[in-house]
Amino acid sequence: MFSMRDMFRSAREGTLAAVAILLFVTAAQAQSDPLPSWNDTAPKASIIAFVEKVTKEGSPEFVSEPQRIAVFDNDGTLWVEHPMYTQLAFALDRVKALAPQHPEWRTKQPFKAAIEGDMETLASSGDKGLLELLMATHAGMTVDDFQKVVTDWLSTARDPRFNRPYTELAYQPMVELLAYLRANGFKTFIVSGGGIEFMRPWTEKVYGVPPEQVVGSSIKTEFRMQDDMPTLFRLPDVNFIDDKAGKPVGINQQIGRRPIAAFGNSDGDLEMLQWTTMAGAPARLGMLVHHTDAEREYAYDRNTEFGRLDKALDAAAIAGWTVIDMKADWKTIFKD
């Protein structure tokens, strides 16, 4: 006879089986989704459709692996750039650390403003003042010494709003995108207005992008024998500015292939997206990250000193670039 105990046991086993099946299906779906931090909106669909199109052999838009080059801006595209660029925060901390060796900075602008935290005066110094700060804090040492200074600073510095290391403020959806592209035969490059040697010590750990695939601004260096050891010494002179019209030049000089995909977030990336997408066949993808989430990150575009998105936003509609709405298109911003 089928007892009540048997009936409850059967029901319990059935429930456990249903739960197991649900967990299995959920896990399988998670594994099959290459971009789990993206909402199922148009940008995610555009990325996946593009990748499938250029990687499918026999497709009229198939692209061989050597030609699968994707370029990414860094500040505001891969990690935070507000309330100021991370490299600027580094430079300001360097001014304060070096100030005891330079008593003249107490009365000389823009160093006085940097020491006192007077951001209004610092901003009024313009590009000339910021360049002066960078030359004073980034030069006068070997490449190896500078790499150690950057690494040590990043290990202790904290973002003022999120109270986390800057290297933990990479955008998780973009980290997933980098990995997804590489899994499909793409070579991913960072092409940034930031200093190339500021980025190289940490990009591989944070993004999976090795130092030889980083294109950025640079200062001049020269070979020196120092204590009978060969070194490269950093000089207080600009070598190359990898921003705006400089980005296509940097891509051509250091990569040597025209990308088929480009990702940016500001007017500084306009020429890079034009260079990438306005070249005809094969298929091309251009995307802009639009900062629209004041609650989880920041909301800004046309009226900001850092990461202004104005001309490029207007150009996106004409050129057919996809605009990523951070608030609507990303499930999460940072990795938990």
UniProtKB/TrEMBL annotation:
SUPFAM superfamilies named among the record's database cross-references: HAD-like
Keywords from the named record: Signal
Alphabetized Gene3D superfamilies for the sequence: HAD superfamily/HAD-like
Cross-referenced Pfam families: HAD
Signal peptide: 1-30
Matching InterPro entries: HAD-like_SerB (IPR050582), HAD-like_sf (IPR036412), HAD_sf (IPR023214)
Name the UniProt record assigns to this protein: Haloacid dehalogenase
